[in-house]
Each structure stands twice: as C-alpha cells, then as structure tokens.
Amino acid sequence: MEPSETRYEKAEYVETTTGNKIHKRVVLAGSRNIRLSGKVIVRSGVVIRGDLAGVSIGKLSILSENSVIRPPHKKFKGGIAFFPLTIGDFVEIGQNCIVEAVSIGNCVRIGDNCQIVRKFLLTSLSSLDLCYCREEDA
Questions:
Q1: Closest CA to 14 of 104, 30, 31, 2
Q2: Residue 98 to residue 35: CA distance in whole angstroms
Q3: If DSSP codes are grouped into helix, strand and coil, which group holds residue 122?
Q4: Percent of the chain at pLDDT above 70?
Q5: 62-63, strands of its sheet edge to edge
Q6: Looking at the predicted structure, is the pLDDT value of residue 136 above 50?
Q7: CB neighbour burial string for 21-31, b if at least 16 within 10 angstroms, e if fewer
Q8: What is the mean pLDDT of the chain?
Q9: How many whole angstroms separate alpha carbon 75 and alpha carbon 84?
Q10: Are 57 and 89 in contact (CB under 8 A)?
Q11: Cα distance between residue 114 and residue 110, in whole Å
C-alpha cells in the first residue's frame, strides 16, 4: 500500500535544522534523552517519554496522531527500571498507538490503534495492523 501525499500547515509545525517536523501540540518529556535522526515527522497529540529512558527514532519516520512512545520497563522487588527504546529508519506508527517495545527495526509499519508493549521486538520489513501484543508478567 503506497502512502498518500500529505500536506502540512507550516504554522502548526516546528522544523529543526535536520529537517524534523514536530507539531506544536506534541509532548516531549525529557527532550534531552530524545534523538530524532532527521526528517522525522511527529504529528499532533504524540507523547514521547524521554524522561524515563533514552528514545532514539531513525530517519524518515512518521509518528501519527495521538500515539504514545515510551521506553520499556521491568519491575523488580526494589522498584522499576526503564530501558532505552530504539526505533529504526523508515518506520510509520499509526494513529492512537502505544509503543513500549525494546526495539523496532527498519522499514516497519504499525497500523492504527496498535498496542506494542514490553520486551517486544519488531524486526525489519514488518507490518502490523489491528494488533495487541502483550507480554504477560511472570
């Protein structure tokens, strides 16, 4: 399926020196721990939780409306630990998704309303639509 051409209202987006386009209604928590590799499009309502651990997003990726990107965690007796999240190049994440995977490879498409949770690893050239991936607590 070929993606359709999308026009952007320049007044609603901030463009960085590396070509990233970030909507003005985006929450970037812990922005020092968030790395966008270039020409990444972050649409309105997206939340990226860099305050928990590092988040790295590859070039030419698209994060669609109202999605949440947060690092995976593990519960211990003494508390909780967060681990870095890496999203590869040419990744499209659909609307209203929750992504808490360890890693997402290159050239991956995640459809609308998907929930990808802890310890999930998406390899390159994957496509998920209408999914709910959950790793049960042991």
A1: 31
A2: 19
A3: strand
A4: 80
A5: 13-15, 21-23, 41-42, 62-63, 92-93, 109-110, 127-128
A6: no
A7: bbbeebebeee
A8: 84
A9: 15
A10: no
A11: 7
- C-alpha to C-alpha distance for 3 and 107, rounded to whole angstroms: 13
Which residue's entry shows tokens 């209203």? 96
pLDDT tens sequence across 80-133 = 999 999 999 999 999 999 998 888 888 888 888 888 876 666 665 555 554 544
Give residue for tokens 């994440």. Answer: 93
Cβ contact 137:75 at 8 Å = yes
Residue-wise DSSP of 70-103? ---EEEETTEEEE--EEE-SS-EE-TT-EE--SE
